[in-house]
Protein: Protein-L-isoaspartate O-methyltransferase
Organism: Gemmobacter lanyuensis
Amino acid sequence: MMQGTPDHHDEGPAERKMRFLFALRSRGVTDARVLTAMERIDRGLFVRGIFADRAYEDMPLPISCGQTISQPSVVGLMTQALNVQPRDVVLEIGTGSGYQAAILSLLARRVYTIDRHRRLVREAVELFRDLNLPNITAVARDGSFGWPEQAPFDRIIVTAAAEDPPGPLLAQLKLGGIMVLPVGQSDTVQSLIKVTRTERGFDYEELRPVRFVPLVEGLASD
């Protein structure tokens, strides 16, 4: 271990949780409901294998199917920007590990989540069941088309980057609804965008630079 580097392996759960929440606050996650939800959902359950001991660090980590679990501060900032209300129905594009959907489930009335990787959906559904989160519905399908059967949605969150906000997702957003997503070329720095649907159309607000995996059309073969 390098001199001056803190050793977090000897921490107990309480210390680890305090450090985790401090990192979120220091990076701009200040919404009390979001912080409470992120305190309740243990990120360690969503990280498997050799990276499990780094689950409480503020960094993205690899998961199955060549995907990643986003760094907690980005999850918190996206959730905060989404401004989820207790009666909201939320659509998530990109289930991944299921971590983001689990947090949203504590804030919303219902969460619908889509991923193109069947394996990720299966593993996430098992975790949702173990955590007793019955208000999440997950399915393997092409997320770029949204979930028209359940539309419109109060909130939409996309955890993969498209060059522009996908038209089908914009169409499935309720009047007054909010969508948060990364936008930009996959090989350059992307911008996190907040889209609000108004009577005049859509208002766009740029939040911060981010880097996400690209939004890919179609179902994966796994």
